[in-house]
Amino acid sequence: xxxxxxxxxxxxQLISATLEAVDQVGMGEASIAYIARxxxxxxxxxxxxxxxxxxxxxxxxxHLMQVLGQGVRRRRAALKDxxxxxxxxAIVDGNFDASQVSGPAMKTWLAFWASSMHxxxxxxxxxxxxHRLYSNLCGEFRRALPLADARAAAxxxxxxxxxxxxxxxxSGQAFDTQQALRIAYDYVDLQLAKAx
Length: 196
What we know:
It is a single chain. The protein is mainly alpha-helical. 79% of the residues lie in helices and 0% in strands. The longest helix has 25 residues, at 53-77. The radius of gyration is 19 Å and the shape is elongated.
Protein backbone atom coordinates (compact mmCIF):
# COMPACT_ATOMS: atom_id res chain seq x y z
CA UNK A 1 0.00 0.00 0.00
CA UNK A 2 1.47 3.41 -0.97
CA UNK A 3 2.41 5.79 1.82
CA UNK A 4 0.03 8.68 2.46
CA UNK A 5 1.22 11.84 0.73
CA UNK A 6 3.55 10.03 -1.68
CA UNK A 7 1.52 10.65 -4.83
CA UNK A 8 2.60 14.29 -5.41
CA UNK A 9 6.20 13.40 -4.59
CA UNK A 10 6.21 10.40 -6.94
CA UNK A 11 4.49 12.32 -9.74
CA UNK A 12 7.01 15.15 -9.45
CA GLN A 13 9.89 12.66 -9.35
CA LEU A 14 8.62 10.90 -12.49
CA ILE A 15 8.05 14.18 -14.36
CA SER A 16 11.63 15.24 -13.54
CA ALA A 17 12.90 11.86 -14.73
CA THR A 18 10.91 12.23 -17.97
CA LEU A 19 12.48 15.64 -18.66
CA GLU A 20 15.91 14.16 -17.98
CA ALA A 21 15.26 11.10 -20.15
CA VAL A 22 14.02 13.13 -23.11
CA ASP A 23 17.06 15.39 -22.77
CA GLN A 24 19.43 12.42 -22.71
CA VAL A 25 17.99 10.08 -25.33
CA GLY A 26 14.92 11.70 -26.93
CA MET A 27 11.27 10.75 -26.54
CA GLY A 28 11.49 7.75 -28.86
CA GLU A 29 14.21 6.09 -26.79
CA ALA A 30 12.88 7.24 -23.41
CA SER A 31 11.15 3.99 -22.53
CA ILE A 32 9.11 3.43 -19.40
CA ALA A 33 11.98 1.27 -18.10
CA TYR A 34 14.54 4.01 -18.81
CA ILE A 35 12.45 6.68 -17.09
CA ALA A 36 11.76 4.40 -14.13
CA ARG A 37 15.48 3.66 -13.80
CA UNK A 38 16.29 7.41 -13.75
CA UNK A 39 13.59 7.97 -11.13
CA UNK A 40 14.74 5.00 -9.07
CA UNK A 41 11.32 3.32 -9.13
CA UNK A 42 9.76 0.24 -10.69
CA UNK A 43 8.06 0.31 -14.09
CA UNK A 44 4.78 -0.44 -12.33
CA UNK A 45 4.88 2.88 -10.47
CA UNK A 46 4.68 4.73 -13.80
CA UNK A 47 1.73 2.59 -14.89
CA UNK A 48 0.08 3.19 -11.52
CA UNK A 49 0.30 6.99 -11.76
CA UNK A 50 0.17 7.64 -15.51
CA UNK A 51 -1.16 4.52 -17.31
CA UNK A 52 1.51 4.66 -20.03
CA UNK A 53 4.18 6.76 -21.68
CA UNK A 54 1.63 9.09 -23.30
CA UNK A 55 0.05 9.72 -19.91
CA UNK A 56 3.47 10.56 -18.52
CA UNK A 57 4.20 12.91 -21.44
CA UNK A 58 0.81 14.58 -20.92
CA UNK A 59 1.55 15.10 -17.20
CA UNK A 60 5.01 16.43 -18.04
CA UNK A 61 3.55 18.91 -20.52
CA UNK A 62 0.90 19.99 -18.04
CA HIS A 63 3.76 20.66 -15.63
CA LEU A 64 5.71 22.74 -18.18
CA MET A 65 2.55 24.65 -19.14
CA GLN A 66 1.78 25.32 -15.48
CA VAL A 67 5.32 26.65 -14.91
CA LEU A 68 4.95 28.81 -18.03
CA GLY A 69 1.59 30.20 -16.89
CA GLN A 70 2.85 30.91 -13.39
CA GLY A 71 5.92 32.69 -14.76
CA VAL A 72 3.84 34.93 -17.01
CA ARG A 73 1.33 35.72 -14.24
CA ARG A 74 4.12 36.49 -11.77
CA ARG A 75 5.79 38.88 -14.22
CA ARG A 76 2.54 40.63 -15.03
CA ALA A 77 1.56 40.97 -11.36
CA ALA A 78 4.95 42.56 -10.56
CA LEU A 79 4.62 45.28 -13.20
CA LYS A 80 4.67 48.89 -12.05
CA ASP A 81 3.80 50.04 -15.59
CA UNK A 82 0.21 49.05 -16.51
CA UNK A 83 0.67 49.75 -20.23
CA UNK A 84 -0.09 47.16 -22.94
CA UNK A 85 3.60 47.33 -23.95
CA UNK A 86 4.74 46.31 -20.45
CA UNK A 87 2.22 43.45 -20.30
CA UNK A 88 3.13 42.20 -23.77
CA UNK A 89 6.81 42.21 -22.84
CA ALA A 90 6.02 40.29 -19.65
CA ILE A 91 4.19 37.64 -21.69
CA VAL A 92 7.16 37.39 -24.06
CA ASP A 93 9.58 37.21 -21.12
CA GLY A 94 7.62 34.32 -19.60
CA ASN A 95 7.74 32.38 -22.85
CA PHE A 96 11.53 32.75 -22.99
CA ASP A 97 12.05 32.06 -19.29
CA ALA A 98 14.89 29.68 -18.39
CA SER A 99 12.28 27.08 -17.37
CA GLN A 100 11.08 27.00 -21.00
CA VAL A 101 14.39 27.28 -22.88
CA SER A 102 16.53 24.81 -20.93
CA GLY A 103 17.68 21.74 -22.87
CA PRO A 104 15.30 19.30 -21.15
CA ALA A 105 12.28 21.61 -21.50
CA MET A 106 12.98 22.42 -25.15
CA LYS A 107 13.44 18.80 -26.14
CA THR A 108 10.27 17.82 -24.28
CA TRP A 109 8.26 20.62 -25.94
CA LEU A 110 9.50 19.44 -29.34
CA ALA A 111 8.55 15.84 -28.55
CA PHE A 112 5.16 17.03 -27.31
CA TRP A 113 4.47 19.02 -30.47
CA ALA A 114 5.35 16.04 -32.65
CA SER A 115 3.27 13.64 -30.55
CA SER A 116 0.29 15.99 -30.33
CA MET A 117 -0.44 15.43 -34.01
CA HIS A 118 -1.25 11.78 -33.27
CA UNK A 119 -2.73 11.75 -29.76
CA UNK A 120 -6.04 13.54 -29.03
CA UNK A 121 -5.25 14.29 -25.36
CA UNK A 122 -1.94 15.89 -26.32
CA UNK A 123 -3.57 17.72 -29.23
CA UNK A 124 -6.10 19.16 -26.80
CA UNK A 125 -3.30 20.41 -24.54
CA UNK A 126 -1.58 22.00 -27.53
CA UNK A 127 -4.79 23.83 -28.49
CA UNK A 128 -5.16 25.09 -24.91
CA UNK A 129 -1.57 26.35 -24.91
CA UNK A 130 -1.98 28.07 -28.29
CA HIS A 131 -5.26 29.65 -27.29
CA ARG A 132 -3.88 30.91 -23.98
CA LEU A 133 -0.95 32.66 -25.65
CA TYR A 134 -3.08 34.17 -28.41
CA SER A 135 -5.81 35.28 -26.00
CA ASN A 136 -3.34 36.98 -23.64
CA LEU A 137 -1.58 38.75 -26.50
CA CYS A 138 -4.82 39.79 -28.19
CA GLY A 139 -6.23 41.16 -24.93
CA GLU A 140 -3.22 43.43 -24.49
CA PHE A 141 -3.02 44.54 -28.12
CA ARG A 142 -6.77 45.26 -27.98
CA ARG A 143 -6.13 47.89 -25.30
CA ALA A 144 -4.23 49.93 -27.92
CA LEU A 145 -5.45 48.78 -31.34
CA PRO A 146 -8.77 48.20 -33.15
CA LEU A 147 -10.00 44.61 -32.89
CA ALA A 148 -8.89 43.43 -36.36
CA ASP A 149 -5.42 44.94 -35.88
CA ALA A 150 -5.15 43.49 -32.37
CA ARG A 151 -6.01 40.02 -33.64
CA ALA A 152 -3.48 40.25 -36.48
CA ALA A 153 -0.79 41.57 -34.13
CA ALA A 154 -1.48 38.78 -31.63
CA UNK A 155 -1.28 36.09 -34.33
CA UNK A 156 1.96 37.61 -35.57
CA UNK A 157 3.57 37.82 -32.13
CA UNK A 158 2.46 34.28 -31.22
CA UNK A 159 4.01 33.01 -34.47
CA UNK A 160 7.17 35.03 -33.82
CA UNK A 161 7.53 33.69 -30.26
CA UNK A 162 7.01 30.11 -31.47
CA UNK A 163 9.35 30.61 -34.43
CA UNK A 164 12.15 32.14 -32.35
CA UNK A 165 11.74 29.38 -29.80
CA UNK A 166 11.75 26.66 -32.48
CA UNK A 167 14.82 28.05 -34.26
CA UNK A 168 16.60 28.28 -30.93
CA UNK A 169 15.63 24.73 -30.00
CA UNK A 170 16.90 23.34 -33.29
CA SER A 171 20.12 25.37 -33.39
CA GLY A 172 22.07 22.90 -31.30
CA GLN A 173 23.39 25.78 -29.20
CA ALA A 174 22.31 27.48 -25.98
CA PHE A 175 19.19 29.55 -26.51
CA ASP A 176 20.01 33.23 -27.06
CA THR A 177 17.32 34.71 -24.84
CA GLN A 178 18.48 38.32 -25.21
CA GLN A 179 18.35 38.17 -29.00
CA ALA A 180 14.89 36.57 -28.95
CA LEU A 181 13.63 39.24 -26.55
CA ARG A 182 15.01 42.07 -28.71
CA ILE A 183 13.31 40.73 -31.82
CA ALA A 184 9.98 40.17 -30.06
CA TYR A 185 10.10 43.56 -28.34
CA ASP A 186 10.77 45.26 -31.69
CA TYR A 187 7.69 43.57 -33.14
CA VAL A 188 5.58 44.72 -30.17
CA ASP A 189 6.81 48.29 -30.62
CA LEU A 190 6.10 48.24 -34.36
CA GLN A 191 2.56 47.00 -33.80
CA LEU A 192 1.81 49.45 -31.00
CA ALA A 193 3.15 52.32 -33.12
CA LYS A 194 0.07 51.78 -35.32
CA ALA A 195 -2.01 53.16 -32.47
CA UNK A 196 -0.69 56.60 -33.30
